[in-house]
Amino acid sequence: MADFGIIVIGGGVVGLAVAERLAGRGDVLLLERRPHHGTETSSRNSEVIHAGLYYPEGSLKARLCVRGNVLLYELCARHGIAHRKLGKIVVATRAEELPAIDTLLARGVANGAPLRRLTGEEARAMEPHVRVVGALDSPSTGVVSAHELMDFYARSAQAKGALIQTRSEVVGIERAGALYRLTVVTGDETEVVTSERVVNAAGLESDTMAGLAGIDVDAAGYRLYYCKGSYFALTPRKWGLISRLVYPVPGNESLGVHAVIDVAGRVRFGPDVEYLPSRQIDYAVDESLRAAFGESARRFLPEVADEDLTPDISGVRAKLQPKGAPVRDFVVQEESARGLAGFVNLIGIDSPGLTSSPAIAEYVETLIG
């Protein structure tokens, strides 16, 4: 039996950021069930550094996104992590959408995001190929290499003395006096490790981990719902149609199929929204979705034809709200009130989790004492 000061469950971008932040504060162990860190949600997304304009004022998503935006750019510049501060415009393509643009502007300004309202003419001067009657300019939006960011967190955590153990699945959590006893399956071996404090950053299985610790996840509102999002890549000969990220007015369940440019200059459209009826994950991108993606793209970029699009990646997000329900905030909760002192749950960390990762880690440090 090994004893640790802090155990972090989950090696996605948030778990890695937390381990990196807490490393050096006693013995830190990060447990990841996959053969390598960051192979699930953290590496299957738009890789956007968000500004913080979509989230209700005072929410954790708003606060941690705005703070994370600043911290992440500083981190990338200091450590040579690939990123591009491209900026973004959120476009109204019809007059009826202009009130939604004004609502976003007010919300983003209240959150502290730098934003500028654009007329259609001003927006077209910035992006001549985009159909737009009015827009928001978000100059602090950008993109980052999620893989380079996670590799940095992992290297830095290990350099500070943290142990990262992959192929290690937590199958049991129990309170034993002042310690937590975690049963961990690694290959054909089962071992028990103990820790004074535990951070549950298990992403898609974070509600499962909360349940193992004895929390009624339904009563707590911690039940997760899997939501798949697919992407289609734009043919390279049309990459020059845009010079920054272009988003539509957001819908009720997502930010909408948007155009994103990655750090290498590739243009993709996505993600769409497909709630999965079970927790079975299939990352295949259905080629029959091409026409739907083409239609979504042409709403704001009319020169995109269906034949310009090819299936790319997909990812699965863990959402706290079922299909059709109002969007929920992040859960970042120290569970002393449930008799689990020193146990911190990070549940429902969907977008803007990547942007927020350094700020989430900073916040967890204050919670864990």
Describe the structure.
With 369 residues, the protein is an alpha+beta fold. The protein has 3 domains: 2-44 and 148-223 and 327-368, 3-Layer(bba) Sandwich (FAD/NAD(P)-binding domain); 88-139, no CATH class; 226-243 and 250-319, D-Amino Acid Oxidase, subunit A, domain 2 (D-Amino Acid Oxidase, Chain A, domain 2, 2-Layer Sandwich), CATH 3.30.9. It contains 9 helices and 20 strands. The protein has helices at residues 13-22, 60-79, 98-111, 120-126, 146-159, 206-212, 217-220, 290-298, 353-368; strands at 2-9, 28-31, 48-49, 83-84, 88-92, 116-119, 134-138, 142-144, 163-165, 168-176, 179-186, 189-200, 225-234, 245-248, 258-261, 267-270, 274-275, 309-319, 331-334, 343-347. Strands 1, 2, 9, 10, 11, 12, 19 and 20 form an 8-stranded mixed sheet that branches. It is elongated, with a radius of gyration of 21 Å.
List descriptors.
369 residues, 27% helix, alpha+beta, D-Amino Acid Oxidase, Chain A, domain 2, FAD/NAD(P)-binding domain, 8-stranded mixed β-sheet, 3 domains, 5-stranded antiparallel β-sheet, elongated
Short characterization:
The protein is of the alpha+beta class and about 375 residues long.
Name the CATH class of the largest domain. Answer: Alpha Beta
Oligomer state of the chains in this structure: single chain
Report the structural category. alpha+beta
Number of strands: 20
What is the radius of gyration computed over CA atoms, rounded to a whole number of angstroms?
21 Å
User: What is the approximate shape?
Assistant: elongated
Please write the string of helix (H) and strand (E) elements. EHEEHEEHEHEEHEEEEHHEEEEEHEEEH
CATH superfamily of the largest domain: FAD/NAD(P)-binding domain
Helix content: 25-40%
By CATH, the architecture of the largest domain is named: 3-Layer(bba) Sandwich
Largest sheet: 8 strands, mixed
Q: Give the CATH topology of the largest domain.
A: FAD/NAD(P)-binding domain
